[in-house]
Amino acid sequence: MTPTTNTPPKAAPVITIAGLSKTYKSGLQALKTVDLSIGKGEIFALLGPNGAGKTTLISIVCGIVTPSTGTVVADGFDIQSQYRQARSRIGLVPQELTTDAFETVLATVTFSRGLFGKAPNPAFVEQVLRDLSLWDKKDAKIMTLSGGMKRRVMIAKALSHEPDILFLDEPTAGVDVELRRDMWQLVRKLRDRGVTIILTTHYIEEAEEMADRVGVILKGELILVEETKALMKKLGKKTLTLNLAEPMAAVPAELAQWKPELKNEGHELEYSFDANAEDTGVPSLIRALEKLGVGFKDLNTKQSSLEDIFVSLVHREKGAVA
Question: What is the CATH T-level fold of the domain 237-303, as seen in this structure?
């Protein structure tokens, strides 16, 4: 197994996870030993394929699942021995839409606030509903709402008791573009107020845009934790694409050292390189092409996305395991 990068948060930790693991009675090891600190006011994105352990990790931190080993401290409180105090600091938006279908929007959000022992605050609840474009639906029964509106209600419920830590488990999966935009506007507002946000997502471009740090989890193991910008700089490759004047049947042997690939039925030649390297290899490749008499009509470079990096990390770890 390759060593992981585990960059600590810049701010003081609001969540500290130490030696956390989970093995079910069936023998399934859903989480291997996980150590992670998340800073106050941070947006932390947890990425991983289905079944990687993302939801198990969130469920343990939120006190829904009991760990086999390890500890979780949330805002200074142990999630097991001080459950009520710890859980009152946490808001959770689960993947599943679980609401009382016969209640109105306003009633269910107000009730959620009361469950955490918070005094009534109609003005605060109204603001949450307005932030999520739900105020005009406040008297509607949840059973009459669309899937996207129900998702908004789940978010409102999670925010009703003014948590310091908010977990969003695939919050924008299967929702409309408008809700996704509203969601991220709200996330930014919450972060500005000092709320810590941990999200899992399949929309990697959202993590790239929003998250301060990214964690990659695979087969129950946290294989990397890194600042998003540093990760892009450290692992991000660039791709040079040359649109050839004449299609090639095969890559000439003289170009073997650069390991370029033919694409688009031989009309394009692709070369991947490290943009941070002292010698990128691009000038020498161009000279070699000119020497061979290979002409090209156009060229462009593209920076790897976080999705490209994520896929390469997963493939690398699978190779290490194999």
Answer: Alpha-Beta Plaits (3.30.70)
| Token digits of residue 198 | 């941990």
Q: In the beta sheet, which residues pair with residue 222?
A: 217
Q: State which amino acid sits at residue 15.
A: I
The conformation of residue 300, written as its DSSP 8-state character, comes to E
pLDDT mean across residues, the chain:
86
| φ, ψ at 172 (rounded to 5°) | -110, 15
Structure tokens at 255: 């170009």
Domain 13-233 is of which CATH architecture?
A: 3-Layer(aba) Sandwich (3.40)
Hey, where are the domains in the chain? 13-233, 237-303
Give the other-Cβ count within 10 Å of 5's Cβ.
15
Among candidates 212, 206, 208, 200, which has minimal Cα distance to 94?
200
Is residue 220's pLDDT more than 80? yes
For residue range 131-190, list pLDDT tens digits in order: 888 999 999 999 999 888 888 898 899 999 999 999 988 877 666 777 777 778 888 888
